[in-house]
Amino acid sequence: MATIFFSEPELVIGHGRKVLFLNPGDLQIFKEIELPPDLTTCGLKLAEPVPVPGPGPRPSHPASSSKQQPAALKEATGSVKVEVSIQNVTYSPDRQLLALTTVGQKAVLLYKSRPENAQLLSIRPLTRASSALRFCSDGSSVLVTDKTGDCYQYDCVEVDAPPRLLLGHLSIVYDILWSEDQQYIITCDRDDKIRVTNYPATFDIHSYCLGHKEFVSGLAMLTEQHIISASGDKTLRVWNYTSGKELLLHELPAPAVRMLVRQLEPEKAYEVAVLLYDHVDAIGVYRLEQTTKESWSITATQMVRAEAGNWHICNFALTDNRIYVTGAENDRLTLRVYDSRNGETATGLPDGWLKMVLDNLDVDAFMPEDLSVWFKKRFDNVSDYLERKKRRIEEQKQQKCG
Amino acid sequence: MVTTTQENDELTWTSTVTGLPQKRYYRQRAHSNPIADHCFDYPARPEDVDWRWLYPSMRADQEVSFADIGCGYGGFLVTLGEMFPEKISIGMEIRVKVSDYVLDRIKALRHRSSDTGAYQNIACLRTNAMKYLPNYFRKGQLEKMFFLYPDPHFKRAKHKWRIINQALLSEYAYVLRKGGLVYTMTDVEDLHIWIVSHMEEHPLYERLTDEEASTDPITPRLYQSSEEGAKVVRNKGDHFLAIFRRL
Question: Any idea where the domains of chain B sit in the sequence?
Fold first, then answer.
């Protein structure tokens, strides 16, 4: 996993055991976090290994974790050292706190990001590898979802407090939002669902936004009432999330596996960028405008080819005119920069900086996640049965006649 | 009354004595993995469900209000249909052969009582209730939900497969109306204790008192009408009933 995001004015890249903080203009690294190879040396107390026999309790989560599974098993037995690697990284809205999750040794780390050097506040073990990470608006806690669909809250005031299980889905949760007023937690999963849960009464589901027909890979807040979602069913949809009403459906040329949204004008215009699955135009950039109180429309489209096909794109970040794309080329991490206004390779980056960033991050071979496992596998166990039933009935009839 | 196979080609696995399908053709092992991908056609949202296809004579002002989750061979579902002719009941069953049996059984019952129009108010869906309840039902639509003799999934690692677990109780509360009831019945005491502790821990449910439970007209029928229940009665085993109210 190579994670990248832009949080005005910093570009943040997490990969392997490092998080780099860059100036997006000239790609100068002004800060970095490097994790030790063994997290117990910085305070991680590993949970008692619980042997789980047979298939895991929730085998439907995408087999993407299969790459991590052998490692996890070894970790449980404690016989083989596992490479610690950063999974998700996120800032609190005021950028005072930074949270990151790891695999290898599964943990959630909380940093005070200011002043200059990030200061580790706490390190708490995770039961399972994280799938999404989000702070609440005031930064007092951070939510971690995992591959089995559970969502845990980690307190950021009592930084060593054990996590609280808030809610559970039946499949992997791909993204999570927390409304500005902290009244609703919005989660989306591999079973086509967007769920809106009351907070703090998380046992009470407020609504569902239903309509997607494949996994929902990304969510973003638009206004106080409206969210946008991206899905493997090749659509973007805008919802009133408290009523669950669909306000806009926009067809995409391919399944969407990641989505980022940037506000252009508050309550009015947004830039929505979508990473497309296995498509020649790797990234679609859409201008989304609110036309009336309850309606939205896409008013402009710009496709970014991003040399799709030549390398394996994993993730991207958006600034006001650039798209920073991470991915794998020949099993190595690669970073490329495009101009979001015309979809071409960005110009004006100082020579050598891209290479310097990569040299700083380069770890062992980087195998991108296989996203094909996100899609539901259809296997038909019904027509077979009905066919056999029909045959047996025919046979019985013939026996009676004969 | 004798219904022969010649009368209705679709009912050929039916007994010539009872006119009902014979269970021996529909046997299937009791366990199913509720988390795995299955081949289900499910609606994206409740308003996409064509209920008329399951209940051809349903009135426009009617909607499904009772759900038997994991209805098995449909014994209790049939009882519900008889006890509550004005209510629409749905049985949900994940196993292919078992749900097919219930479909054939209802078809035969409707056929046998075409003069009275009975059994038009029950139907069976092959689906994964753990995953797709919100796809079928609006918030607060259901009046009663039944979990009768659920798969105990004894192994600790499989407790997440149990039909009653912490995360799912919130989903059930979502489709249940306030004041709606959840009936649970099992012959496995450990599972009963598990169910009661999870339900009582959940802020949206309260358990009915023994007196309330015993005066509910459904209670005595729970002991008799499901096949699993009848088996337990035959074996003189224990039953553990618990009823909960959605707050």
Answer: 50-246
